[in-house]
Amino acid sequence: MAKLSLSGVSKAYGATLALRRGDLDIEAGEVHVLLGSNGSGKSTLCKIVAGSVRPDKGEVLIDGRPVTISGPQAARALGIGIFYQELSLSEHRSVAENICLADLPGKSGIFVDRAALEARASRYIALFAGVAGEGFSAEALVGNLRADQRQLVEIMKALSSEAPVIIFDEPTSALDRAQVDRFFEILRQLKTEGRGIIFISHRMDEITAIGDRATVIRDGETIRTLKLSETDPAEMIRLMVGENSDLPSAEHELPAAGPSAGAPLLSVRNLSGKGFRDVSFDVLPGEILGFGGLHGQGQSAVLRALFGASSISGGSLELSGRSLAVANPRSAIRSGLAYVSGDRGRDGVIQGRPIVENAAPIHYLKERLLLARPSALRDKVLPALGALHTKFASLAHPIGSLSGGNQQKIVIARWLIERPEVLLLDDPTKGIDLAAKADLFNLIRQLAAEGMAILLYSSEDAELLGNANRILVFNGGAVTRELTGADRTRYNLYQAAYEAA
Amino acid sequence: MAETGSAKAPTPGGFKRLIERYPFLPALGILIILLALNGIFSPNSLSYRSLTGLVSTYLALIMLAIAQTYVIFAGDIDLSAGAVVSLVNVVIIVLMEKMGGGGLAVFAALGVGVLAGLVCGLINGIVVAGLRLQAIVATFATSIFFTGFALWVMPVAGTPAPALFWRTYGSKLLGLPFVFYIVAALAILLFVISRTRLALQLLSVGDDAQAAYQTGLPVTPIRIKGYLLCGLFSALAAFCVTGDTASGDPLVGGKMTLFSVAAVVLGGSALAGGWGTVVGSLLGALTIGLINSLVFFIGTPSEWQNFVQGLAILVVLMAGILVGRRARA
């Protein structure tokens, strides 16, 4: 009998279906790998099991009994522990306090039993003795630790649940070799104790090293469960990719225009900053350069740094042959860069203001306008909006009255009144409908054809394969592979994304 | 992601570690400087008698700052704390008067006062944590509500407290002022509370509420308990006010609310939650008291006292932040 089994579990956030149909069986004493590309629903599935996301439909069985997991507390009580990809630590608390936080050892009901807390925490800290690195101790504040050390604390916290089923959602992304080896030793020990383990990683070597079975998730559906001993990485990647995986994408959807030869418009050399290091590339005028790879491997960080929204610690930039220094977004805009983020709420839309005000701010900045006549502004804004087939009742309507796709069009239109030289697109189609996506990509190709250089990061691989002339695959903050011409296939993209950093 | 920063091992220097262990140290330093300044401008202000007076006057603010600290730990705030002080003040005065002002009446009234503070805390907790309204606005609204209730209990200020009550507050026991015994009892109480699971859970919730929820902590009950503690200490603050002023006033606590928030920040706690100490808030409240007395002792003309007082609080706040920033760098 399976320790944990899910059938037909689904979850939608508004109109987007994060998980269409999740089926999963976790046996006692196995490491069960979840495989899937960006946004395929792995993390949603994990969070449903851990109780931090409530499923819309479906059944969860623990040891054969149907259960309702009403929240993280209930999940713990049912014997489920979890390592969260985004970590669940209190920065100002000590390592020991974080490890025991979910179940603080008590004394006479209300007091914390410090001795028991230290003793329990030290058991888990001892598991990583020697590999945790300098400055790691029970008393150290988590906020003072390095990223890999924080990840170790989250691992210890998950282990301290002593739950029969433990989920590890990308526990190794910041760990070094020795730490991963130690962690795998611990996992093997847990297996012998008969615990069920769900494991997510984007490194194929780790998956084959520790996994017993793997379930492949594609577009929110669990496709198949297979034994890792009876398969190979190539097949797993084929399953993740789905049908037609061997066709080069260029054959079914060719980018409209290639880059015009000549001097690069933007050159980036050995750029380093928070979340990425040593990134170099050139973009030609008219080229669409794609950034690929799994989520959060440094793609957004590079784009934000180029736009001056986060700081650069090393490397150099050249725009049209001249050295470029971006101190902040304002200077980046003045030197001809434009940035559109998929996170419209945070980075794009000015909530509660009319459409015309949302379309004009860059115009104000570039023209150094203090005042503008509404009619003159209207003449500037309307052509830009028209180019994108934006649907709206009137310019005076609040931006909130539009759909996500049309809001994003307004945000893009604000850059089109005075054309930038380089357009930075940071997952621009997140959460917008298909028709709007098609309009957007038509426009992007048209802008490229007119000579603009475009950097496109998309979490949807199809968008990259269908639109980018070249794709740089990011892994662990660095560019690990460049795909051009006929190499731009889903297969190659996944393979590059999943290989060891 | 770690790669770029991994060369630098996280070994905080001695100063930083000291501040991390005792976040109230900057506040203590400032307090000592203020004491010294007070001593320079008016040597008499450091006399035993004056310090006793300072403590008995500012004990209420100390209590209220401590009350505020527990909600700020969890990343919340209570703008009704002062109104709760007013409400409890008039409730116990009216009760003591109605029941004759004897020893039994005083104790019964204090019991009801604590209960009233807890009820106010519970209301705030339910409104903020349960109904998920914005803490600042929601507790501002309840403060108006509590003030209205206080005005219904006692429409005009002036009813005196029974002599037994305020004489005890100002009395001496075994040669030591009564307020010092309160301070000692408070210290023990704070020590006990700091060892509870609740204190740790409040700080974790304030640190990152989402993380605390995902960890499996009952976030809403924890926040409500924070408001309950706040209500309890607000009631204790009201007792001190009543002992100090010896009368009932339905508006007495109103102006104390933001002073209590200021005291918490001066004491080194983070207004965003997750970081701080009650000892710091105690020192912060004393700092405000010392600033006020210093403004008086340097002979500031009365029309300039507010101006100088505000300026002094700003300067102290800046000094604290500069020290804290150096420690964090």
From TrEMBL, chain A:
PROSITE patterns: ABC_TRANSPORTER_1, ABC_TRANSPORTER_2. Residues 4-244, 261-501 form the ABC transporter domain. Keywords: ATP-binding, Cell membrane, Membrane, Nucleotide-binding, Repeat, Sugar transport, Translocase, Transport. It comes from the Bacteria. GO terms for molecular function: ATP binding; ATP hydrolysis activity. Belongs to the ABC transporter superfamily. This is Sugar ABC transporter ATP-binding protein. The lineage of its organism: Bacteria, Pseudomonadati, Pseudomonadota, Alphaproteobacteria, Hyphomicrobiales.
From TrEMBL, chain B:
The keyword Membrane applies. GO terms for molecular function: transmembrane transporter activity. The keyword RNA-binding does not apply. It comes from the Bacteria. Keywords: Cell membrane, Membrane, Transmembrane, Transmembrane helix. InterPro entries: ABC_transp_permease. The chain crosses the membrane at residues 22-41, 53-72, 79-96, 102-123, 135-154, 174-193, 226-246, 252-271, 278-298, 304-324. It is found in: Cell membrane. CDD domains: TM_PBP1_transp_AraH_like. PANTHER family: ABC TRANSPORTER PERMEASE PROTEIN YPHD-RELATED-RELATED. This is ABC transporter permease. It comes from Metarhizobium album.
